[in-house]
Amino acid sequence: MKRKITLKQIAKELDVSISTVSKSLRNSLEIGEETRLKVQAFAKFYNYKPNNIALSLKNRKTKSIGIIIPEIVHYFFSTVINGIEQVANEHGYSVVICLSDDSFDKEVLNMEMLANGSIDGFIMSLSKETQFKGDFHHITEVINQGMPVVMFDRVTNDILCDKVIIDDKAAAYEAVQSLIDSGRKKIALVTTVDYVSVGKLRTDGYEKALLDNGIPFNEDLIIKIEDVDTCEITISQLLHDRAFDAVFAVNELFAVTIIKTASKMGLKVPEDLAVIAFTDGIISKYSTPSITTVSQSGEKMGNKAAKMLIERLEAEHDDDEEENENYTTEVIETHLIKRESTD
Amino acid sequence: MKRKITLKQIAKELDVSISTVSKSLRNSLEIGEETRLKVQAFAKFYNYKPNNIALSLKNRKTKSIGIIIPEIVHYFFSTVINGIEQVANEHGYSVVICLSDDSFDKEVLNMEMLANGSIDGFIMSLSKETQFKGDFHHITEVINQGMPVVMFDRVTNDILCDKVIIDDKAAAYEAVQSLIDSGRKKIALVTTVDYVSVGKLRTDGYEKALLDNGIPFNEDLIIKIEDVDTCEITISQLLHDRAFDAVFAVNELFAVTIIKTASKMGLKVPEDLAVIAFTDGIISKYSTPSITTVSQSGEKMGNKAAKMLIERLEAEHDDDEEENENYTTEVIETHLIKRESTD
DNA sequence: TTGCTTTACGAAAACGTGGTAGTGTTGAAA
DNA sequence: TTTCAACACTACCACGTTTTCGTAAAGCAA
């Protein structure tokens, strides 16, 4: 139950000053070899490690990155964290994670909590509620205090900062185009309510692909779902009417639910119904049939976001208050992973 | 680009002492009402918030919890984090997460990094490599420094500390018993290499259930897998021989792979092959057929672990160095979730 | 005036660290 | 003998906060 040893204690024990101890441990030439080695040996014996908090206070940098995401039990987000953590670790940073639970208030609270010195910078993805409200004052505030923020995936144009996104529109376009190429004409889009920025963009890509191929855009084929559990009814009704022969779903949960519903009704996938999902997750890979998806490498996004943030942090350090805020938006490439749910 | 305001700056601006500002903001009666209100107004205007790092240094507590887990892109672990975060948040704690990547060295490194003042206590699950090596010095060390540790799921008897586990043996027993009850006689166990503590326990439960029902324990029906990708071959060979009519898999990835393999061979699940998996995750729920599982509520484990840790942290605070280390091990209940993969 | 209490505030220490600027001693060159 | 440099070390400050202790000023009784 011995508390961690401090410079002061070592100093007292060896009857030298704190400075001497500190310098000895940092191998300063100011200290004579004899004393230096004695201190080092003593410190090693007691397993001295400098206190991070004291260092943070002194250096005004914590070497940790705050991550704020809507949820963590979520394949995409956890891969992003994984990606962030890899790069952070390489550079000696820790990550502290807060969950907004898709709530605006929690997002604000968490940001305020972390912004008071706990971290050097943020990597975040907006909560649904925040996107809905369009209130970003908490983020602006943090940025104004000189704390760098990198946003990913669920971003907003209302905030100027570094961003990492995928080209949702182009990716959706590619997916829908591939359905069209395989002869599908009645393509449904199963999406979320559209205030979530990415949902909107994917819808745009869907629409553009249809129009570019001379297929009329039919409002009835856009199925907006907020709750997965209720979607089955809607889907089965439409399937019953044979209203569509292909589906582009904005996430894999929707896709697998649709496939299950179709199977129950005796429809064959992909023969009777082709399915493509956004976000390549674990479900798509292991479901039966496995699902063709648009890959969206969370890991790469995380890597990139962390790199951008750390780069800014280290640069800031050098030239103090130089205001060269040339924010960039990185676009991570996507590609179609063909599996059994399409032909 | 204005930096966060500090007590000192407020003091200077209002021409009072730092102490006066501090006391005013904490509504101390020592300070006259006029001054107090003036300071409060000023602080509010400039959105003063005390610096967490300084507070941590002074109070010798960081109000954050370190979590060390093998991986994060993993349903079970992310639900645990979710559970921890809920409780932590309620009590004003943040969580900082480090990934050991199932590597001993990374686990040690991460623990050392966090142990130097960054956090108040640990919640962790051992990496495979650590379990294999049986080297727990890094954990002992942390505990000896008076930092509380709560282990969950992958624990060890070699360390004395609070633990949260499920009764792996009983749960496995229940699962196998239910297969026996439905008339299965040749039950295979698909497991990982057995130095991982939980794999061992589940095997024990499997064996006991068989023996209790007068079914001979057949070594050949225990299939040990380290890499998911290679298991398909082994499985298909055994299935071909009709060596078993039921499978108890220690995780859902194994289960779904087995089902896929069986389906390819024309076997019907559950008619020809019944399957039960450990760990109720997203795959089991959404695969076709959906998989009967032993629920293992990560969220509850996280809740419990966080509660135990925080309780210890707050207690410690009161009575300083009282050494009442009555460590407990909480067992989270499991239950069988019946789905389509069994009859 | 003296002595005492109350009010209202300030000084300083402490948490642990690291860097800058000394300080005193020794030895050697001028 | 003086002066200067090298050596080996210490003092002190700052980071931002809280808290303990101290004290000046004011009020009041004797």
Automatic annotation (TrEMBL), chains A, B:
InterPro entries: HTH_LacI (IPR000843), LacI/GalR-like_sensor (IPR046335), Lambda_DNA-bd_dom_sf (IPR010982), Peripla_BP_I (IPR028082). One of its GO terms (molecular function) is DNA-binding transcription factor activity. Keywords: DNA-binding, Transcription, Transcription regulation. Residues 5-59 form the HTH lacI-type domain. Residues 332-343 have a biased composition (Basic and acidic residues). Residues 316-325 have a biased composition (Acidic residues). It holds the Pfam family Peripla_BP_3. The keyword DNA damage does not apply. PROSITE patterns: HTH_LACI_2. Residues 315-343 are annotated as: Disordered. This is Transcriptional regulator, LacI family. It comes from Flavobacterium defluvii. The lineage of its organism: Bacteria, Pseudomonadati, Bacteroidota, Flavobacteriia, Flavobacteriales.
